[in-house]
Amino acid sequence: MGPEALGGSYVEGTIHSRYVQCISEQSWIAQFLSRSLEQVDDEEWLMEVGNIMGDKDVVVSRYSAFPEEKSFLYKCMGVMMRKSNHKQFVQKHLDVLFSTVKHTIQVEREVCVSAFCCAESWP
Asked: Which residue blocks in the chain are alpha helix, DSSP H?
């Protein structure tokens, strides 16, 4: 039985399984980032990496057409904010989050909230 016989369910199942795999990989990478920041334990390095990730011009120019990738970037920014001890760093990245999120795209809204929750647990 080929994909034609299964109709849309074959394609939908394939897309769903790739989506689940992508989410799993993103979670693993976010955990890796978090643990790496703990091991490196260097606030200057964290801020340098975070400033590269959170450059507003880069977020707008490179990610505006890719909401899934932009959402993953937001997750990573949330991890960086949670690990930082600098209030200005956290404020700057919250500004980037709220000024670049497309509120009409559900995945961006949801991840923006989760990144904000990470920052909310800031020391």
From this structure: 3-6, 8-40, 43-53, 56-63, 67-83, 87-100, 106-120
Q: What is the pLDDT of residues 82-123, one digit of tens each?
A: 888 888 988 898 888 888 888 888 888 777 777 766 666 555
Compute how many other C-beta atoms are within 10 angstroms of the C-beta atom of residue 110: 12
Q: How many residues does the chain have?
A: 123
> Can you tell me whether residue 20 is helix, strand or coil?
helix
Q: How far apart are CA 19 and CA 42, in angstroms?
A: 34
- Side chain identity, residue 29: I
CA pair distance 17, 121, nearest whole angstrom: 32
Contact criterion met (CB below 8 Å) for 45 and 83 = no
b/e burial code for range 40-73 (CB count within 10 A of at least 16 → b): eeeeeebbebbeebbeeeebeeebeeebbebbbb
- Segment (H or E) for 72: helix 67-83
pTM: 0.69
Domain boundaries, the chain: 3-120
Residue 3: in which H helix or E strand, if any?
Answer: helix 3-6
